[in-house]
Amino acid sequence: MLKYQEVAQHIENEIQTKNLSQGTKLPSVNELVAKYKVSKNTILQTLKVLESRSIIYPVQGNGIFVRRRKRKGYITLLENQGFSGDLTYIDVVPKVICFKVVKATEEVANNLQCTLDDDVYFVKRVLSIRDQILCLEESYYKMSVVTFLSEAILEESIFQYLEKGLNIKTGFSDKYLSVLKTKGDISKYLELPKDSPMLLVEEIYYTNTGEPFDFAKIYYHYEHSQFFLNG
Amino acid sequence: MLKYQEVAQHIENEIQTKNLSQGTKLPSVNELVAKYKVSKNTILQTLKVLESRSIIYPVQGNGIFVRRRKRKGYITLLENQGFSGDLTYIDVVPKVICFKVVKATEEVANNLQCTLDDDVYFVKRVLSIRDQILCLEESYYKMSVVTFLSEAILEESIFQYLEKGLNIKTGFSDKYLSVLKTKGDISKYLELPKDSPMLLVEEIYYTNTGEPFDFAKIYYHYEHSQFFLNG
User: Fold this and answer.
1) What is the pLDDT of residues A102-126, one digit of tens each?
2) CB-based contact, B44 to chain A, within 8 Å
3) CB contact set of A91 (below 8 Å; sequence gap of 6+)
4) B81 Cβ under 8 Å from any chain A Cβ
5) Pairwise CA distance, residues A177 & A122, whole Å
6) Is the CB of residue B67 less than 8 Å away from at least one CB of chain A?
7) pLDDT recorded at residue A74
8) Distance CA A61, CA B108 (A)
9) What ipTM was estimated for this complex?
10) CA angle A169, A161, A92 (to 5 degrees)
């Protein structure tokens, strides 16, 4: 971990443990420099990171302030780490429904920028939290990037494996949201009556060199999921 | 407009008009310095802005690349300007249902950080695009910040008025999303049968000094709305 990340982590922990409320003024840049014994540049980088993660906000000529959301139990839509925010992987229990290698369909090829001849891992899982069904997930992983997956891995955090096992660095993601009625298999896996409301989130994850490697369709149980977004 | 914003605008326009596809390599920092006759620092600021707006992505040691989404007709969830992305205010036709001054309810006071004694503007509008109902919007504006509103203003872009008329600078926003079934008045205004799927987006907008001034509940017609999110 780089120095500025370490300091960022430390400040974030402090906000949490001291339970500082939104609008609380933090020490000045110079005070932070003195406190953490690092350069001014490091502190400026630290603050940029904390601001981009919506943990602080700067007010010109006045200082740096704590930013916190109030509501608990919401899934953060923005972080590129699979589930995050209040819901961590510790809470999420995956059940693998299907795991196989398939040829890319037109939809998959289009989103993963590959051809219909390319092999992709297809993974279908139901994810639950505290015995409540959160979502049905259908993911397609491009095998030229995600060179190996196994059923054992799918029962844990895939993103942690991709990052630490395969050294795949996520660069950015596109997410498309729409609201639909459940039907067929989806109702069955979500254990909802046909025509129930449902949020479909389609996600495309790219490596830090801009190559798409994961296309996922996630169908959320409307009674068990709520989402949060920092702007 | 500052120099780096001007250059950012210019590069964004070029990507649009030349219809550059995702992954297209852009000129190097030095080439951009020469082209726009500005300092290296200005170009670095320009690129930071374009990256944060998901218009480009840098690849370490390799260059700067175009980032573009493929799907049309999606509302961008992240920009703090009301509707944006493909849908601009030009397309959105508001119809005012109700406009009055009320005392803050508990929910409103909680989200706007005011008391139950404080006056707020209450605005209820139905927004349509090309004769299709997009959403029902219930907004509460804190009168200590939003000192004046009128029905004529509500028929145009409120955010433009707040920024240019009242000089309110939006700093950041919190958004909470949940999926529900329509009922009562909401079904009526969305012209949907009772128990239809619906996306509820609750938004809180803060000034650049961290004061909440707008709390809005927006109920989206599920057949007429889709959303996009850059991560």
Assistant:
1) 999 999 999 999 999 999 999 999 9
2) no
3) A129, A130
4) no
5) 21
6) yes
7) 83
8) 30
9) 0.87
10) 115
Contact predicate B216/A164, CB 8 Å: no
Q: Is the dihedral of CA A82, A87, A89, A93 positive or negative?
A: negative
In the 8-state DSSP scheme, what is residue A47? H
- Phi and psi dihedrals of B105, rounded to 5? -80, 175
* pTM greater than 0.90: no
Distance CA A140, CA B217 (A): 35
> How many residues in chain A?
231
Cβ proximity of A123 and A96 under 8 Å: yes
Distances (CA, A) of A185 to A62, A195, A210, B60: 55, 12, 33, 43
Residue with tokens 């299709």: B132
Substitution target from B21, B67, B229, B230 for chain A, most A beta carbons within 10 A: B229
- A16's tokens: 């949490």
**What is the amino acid identity at position A49?**
V
Helices (H) then strands (E): counts for chain A: 7, 10
Alpha-helical (H) ranges within A79-209 are 106-112, 151-154, 158-160, 184-190
**B177 to chain A: which residues are within 8 Å by CB?**
77, 177, 199, 226-229
Nearest to A3 by CA among A34, A31, A45: A45
Among residues B99, B106, B95, which one has the least CA distance to residue B141? B99
pLDDT digits (tens, 9 = 90+) for A73-105: 788 887 644 444 444 555 788 999 999 999 999
Q: Is A231 on the interface with B (CB under 8 A)?
A: yes
**H-only helix segments in chain B:** 3-17, 29-36, 40-52, 106-112, 151-154, 158-160, 184-190
Chain A positions in Cβ-Cβ contact with residue B210 (cut-off 8 Å): 22-23, 57, 59, 65, 67
Residue of chain A whose Cα is closest to the Cα of B221:
A179
Tokens read off for A178: 């729409």
CB atoms inside a 10 Å sphere around CB B30 = 10
Give, to the nearest 10 degrees, the angle between helix B40-52 and helix B29-36. 110
Give the span between the Cα atoms of A14 and B204, in whole angstroms: 25
> What are the tokens at B45?
């600021």
Q: Tokens 């390599």 belong to which residue?
A: B25
Distance of CA B221 to the CA centre of its chain: 18
